[in-house]
Structure formats: structure tokens, C-alpha cells
Amino acid sequence: GEKWVLMKTAQTPTNIAVIKYRGKRDETLILPVNDSISVTLDPAHLCTTTTVAVSPAFQQDRMWLNGKEISLSGGRYQNCLREIRKRAREVEDKEKGIKIEKKDWEKLHLHIASYNNFPTAAGLASSAAGFACLVFALAKLMNVEEDESQLSAIARQGSGSACRSLFGGFVKWIMGKEEDGSDSLAVQLVDEKHWDDLFIVIAVVSSRQKETSSTSGMHESVETSLLLQHRAKEVVPKRTIQMEEAIKGRDFASFAKLTCADSNQFHAVCLDTSPPIFYMNDTSHRIISHVEKWNRSEGSPQVAYTFDAGPNAVLIARNRKAAAQLLQRLLFSFPPKSDTDLDSYIIGDKTILQ
Ligand code: PMV
């Protein structure tokens, strides 16, 4: 008689930080040394879809990523699963005649299937969407009461940047003060409708490049980079306030200035790490020069650039017109599949949508 399966599906977009997170003060709980702010992307282009299933017939917890089984034994998965299971509540499906009591969740096993709608190897942040989606889908399945911010503190333990993907629009990850990490969570600054004329173009500089883990070298940055100490103490606290103001007031000139400066300092910290870490390549640098020159010639910024742990450029245009001009310029100067080593463009039609 124990043949039933109960399933839930969730979809979560990735997010791009405009004030970056780099450096952990606690590596197990994933507690950062500074606040960060991000914009959540349109799910049509970069998102994860995860289905979670529970059944008395399942012998163990298992997970498949893009159809291939992956191990759940890592601490990051185990922490998320444990924290969600702790909060599981009674679930009843009268139609199917299923009743799962609170205490049953400890014994029941899960099957998890997760898909990215973008190439996982493209070096585009996939762990952010992945862990946020996993935690959100499990919370739905297990009838968890906690709100998005509380869930974000769980997703954070899978991947730091994942905590910011539980909301649309612009999101702030508050670093928190508590040692147990309970106040290190994400809050929504403004929703996806607040600044909807922004337009995002991602220049996939190289999808061939093997994904370098964004975590790799973070420990070394904390240990060896004096610039990181200065950034966390002196720069980011002020910059976060300015960025919040720019976002709330839809002040693109300030937004672009702060976004570009923060990306550049993030990569300067990587370079200031021993041994140094290089995420950008020649093409990335040429794109920066191109955008800087264009913005200067226009008198006021049309486009902001930001780069994560890889060479791909995330370009945020002030509106559709600026995005069209940007694309024209990029396609002329950096045609895909040429010796510029640029693979493709991902174009957001609706930029900030949940
Ligand atoms: O959360 P992680 O370990 O994937 O680190 C993400 C770090 C950056 O994407 C480079 C910056 C950020 O704040 O998202």
C-alpha cells in the first residue's frame, strides 16, 4: 500500500551582484565579511527548475542535475537538507489519501531533479539559482512556515549568493552579527517592477572555459589580501548605503558608477590574493575599456558592467534604447565565434522579473 509519491516543483532565477560578496568570516555557516546587493534576472534566460519528490519507496536521498546523478554527501547539501527537515510540518493530501506527520520526515527519503535552462559549463553563476531553488522547493513540499528571508538563511548555507535568489528585484544580503548566522539573510530592497526599464545583456566571453568555483581562493583572499580588509571595513559599508539610494531613486548615473567600481575592486582583491586569482581575460578587459569610453563620450553612463568569478560580462543598460546601441557596438567590435573569443550573447527582454 505504500506506493505513493508526493512532488513539488519550483523555479528560481539567478542573481548578479552589483555590490559583491567576497570573503567569509565563517566558512561552514557561510557568513560573509560584508553586505552585498544584487539584481535578480529574468527567469526566462537564466534559471533553475527543481522538482522534489518524497515516497516511502525511496531508499535514500538522491539528486540529479541536468539528468546526471550527483552526490549529496557534501556539507553544503547536507546542511540545507538538515535545516529544512528540522522545519518540516504535517502534510496531508486527502485526494491521494496521503498523510505525512511531522516526525515522519526524518525517516522519509527525497529524490531531487534539477535543471538549468542555460549551459552549466558557461561559467554563469548556477549555484545561486540552484540552492535557492532546492530550498524553496523543499520548503513547499514539507509545508515549511518560514518566510523567504528565513529560507534565505538556509539557502545561504548551500551557496552564499543563493540567499539573494529567493526574491525578485533588487536584494540585499545583510551580513549579520550573530555567530550562529541566524541574522545573515536576504531582504528585498525593491521589487521587480520598481526599475523595469533596465535591460541586461550578458556577453558570454567563453563558454568553453571550465567553471572556476567562485569559492576557490576566497579563503586565501581573507588570509592574504589587505585590500579585502580595507574593502570590507571602509569601502562596502558606505558603498552599500549609496547603492541603496541609487536603486531606490532610480539614479542610473550613480548606479553605474558604483556597480563598475565594485566589480573592479572585487577583481583587484582577487589580484591582491596570494597566489593571485585571474577571473577576467583580455576580452573582458577590452569590453570594460569599450564601455568606459562610450560612457565618457555620452557625458552620462548608458551601461554598467560587472564580472563575477569568470570572464563573462554582465552589462546593465539604462533602457531598451541604450541596450540596442550597446548590442550594435558589441556585435561590431566583438562578433561571436571570431578571434575575439566571444561565444554568444544572452539578452534579457524583461530584466528584473521574479
Ligand atoms: O555564493 P558563491 O560561493 O557562488 O560566490 C559568489 C560570488 C560572486 O558571484 C563572485 C559575487 C557575488 O556576490 O555573487
Put the structure in a nutshell.
With 354 residues, the protein is α+β, with helices and mostly antiparallel strands. The protein has helices at 75-86, 127-141, 148-155, 218-224, 226-248, 252-271, 282-298, 320-333, and strands spanning 6-13, 15-19, 24-26, 31-32, 36-40, 47-55, 62-65, 68-70, 91-93, 98-100, 109-116, 170-174, 185-190, 199-204, 303-306, 313-317, 344-347.
Description:
The chain is α+β, with helices and mostly antiparallel strands. It folds into 2 domains: 185 residues, 2-Layer Sandwich (Ribosomal Protein S5, domain 2), CATH 3.30.230; 149 residues, GHMP kinase, C-terminal domain (Alpha-Beta Plaits). The chain is built from 8 helices and 17 strands. It has a 5-stranded mixed β-sheet, covered by helices on one side. A 4-stranded antiparallel β-sheet has the order 2-5-12-13. Strand 9 and strand 10 form a beta hairpin. The radius of gyration is 21 Å and the shape is globular. The chain starts with 5 loop residues before the first strand and ends in a 7-residue tail after the last strand. The C terminus is likely disordered. The chain binds (3R)-3-hydroxy-3-methyl-5-(phosphonooxy)pentanoic acid (PMV). (3R)-3-hydroxy-3-methyl-5-(phosphonooxy)pentanoic acid binds next to helix 2.
Summarize the SSE layout with pairings.
Elements: E1 6-13, E2 15-19, E3 24-26, E4 31-32, E5 36-40, E6 47-55, E7 62-65, E8 68-70, H1 75-86, E9 91-93, E10 98-100, E11 109-116, H2 127-141, H3 148-155, E12 170-174, E13 185-190, E14 199-204, H4 218-224, H5 226-248, H6 252-271, H7 282-298, E15 303-306, E16 313-317, H8 320-333, E17 344-347
Helix pairs in contact: 1-2, 2-3, 5-6
The structure holds (3R)-3-hydroxy-3-methyl-5-(phosphonooxy)pentanoic acid.
